[in-house]
Specification:
This protein is mainly alpha-helical. Helix 3 packs parallel to helix 5. It is globular and about 80 Å long.
Length: 295
């Protein structure tokens, strides 16, 4: 039986992870789990710790354990997040060759490959999956980043045939909807708002997602309120800061202080690297022109 299925032992903790309730995942009591689910539960707990920024603790726990490909896959991601990108990539590539059928390897090594820009390698590994909801969600993320909304939509539609009631697939469908736009913005908003406002599922991650949907719908005060809730929940969350910068610019305010905060909190955040790349492109284009001086 799939431990993450509706009948599986890990359904609740798996759902909590994808709702962004990382503290709940870390504190999950796995003592009563069957032996076959001990490692998957540990992997989820370690991934939650990584999401909380506890990279050093995770590396200390898995750094010397090469007996389990699941834990080595966690190590690969931890290495990447700790700034040892080349080493993390090397480990991920080795796992992709030696343990490509392992579900944890598919997700975690696939994530490292994706983060390193090796999208084709990541997709090749992920497409080996057999009924993995997480693999589908990561495939969708990669395809959206590649601006292949058509492929992402097909991936979600195919998954809904065998996982129609899955919250993770509903979330992935909402990501696609945010890219398609139109009526899909409102549909995505309903999914994210339900998670963000219900006491049992509320988390920083879902609050930020709700805020992004509000932004696309042009509801700036509502977006600001959701982001304020997210800041109160987790003041140093990089995604909250990045999206608050976007809102600040839209409102015509100076984002300089927030950009500085993000640079301290997550100096390699995609928002910052993209901003830097665009600034370089602007400077390059501007250098081709000289100002006209009227005599």
């Amino acid at each position: 039986m799939d431990p993450f299925s509706a009948e599986g032992e890990l359904l609740n903790v798996h759902t909590a992870f994808h709702q962004g309730q990382y503290d709940e995942v870390v504190s999950f009591d796995s003592s009563a789990l069957s032996a076959s689910n001990k490692i998957p539960a540990k992997v989820l707990r370690l991934r939650a710790q990584l999401a909380l920024g506890q990279t050093g603790k995770v590396l200390a726990e898995v750094g010397k354990d090469d007996s389990s490909p699941d834990l080595v896959a966690v190590k690969a991601l931890a290495l990447h997040l700790s700034g040892k990108a080349a080493e993390g990539l090397s480990v991920a590539r080795r796992l992709a060759v030696e343990h490509k059928d392992n579900a944890s390897v598919q997700i975690l090594a696939g994530t490292v490959l994706h983060l390193e820009g090796k999208h084709d390698e990541a997709l090749a590994l992920l497409n080996v999956h057999e009924g993995s909801l997480e693999a589908v969600a990561l495939i969708v993320q990669i395809q959206l980043q590649q601006n292949r909304t058509d492929l992402a939509l097909k991936e979600v539609q195919a998954a809904k045939k065998w996982a129609q009631d899955s919250q993770l697939i509903n979330i992935a469908e909402s990501w696609v909807g945010m890219r398609i736009g139109g009526d899909r913005y409102q549909q995505a908003f309903y999914v994210f708002e339900e998670m963000a406002q219900a006491p049992s599922t509320k988390a920083t991650k879902s609050l930020v997602a709700q805020a992004v949907a509000e932004l696309h719908l042009g509801r700036l005060p509502e977006a600001e309120a959701a982001l304020q809730q997210a800041i109160e929940e987790s003041p140093e969350n990089a995604e909250t800061i990045a999206n608050t910068i976007v809102l600040t610019v839209i409102l015509g305010k100076d984002p300089k202080e927030l950009v500085g905060t993000l640079q301290k909190t997550a100096p390699k955040h995609l928002f910052l690297t993209d901003l830097e790349a665009k600034a370089e492109l602007f400077d390059k284009a501007a250098s081709k022109y000289s100002p006209k001086v009227s005599g």
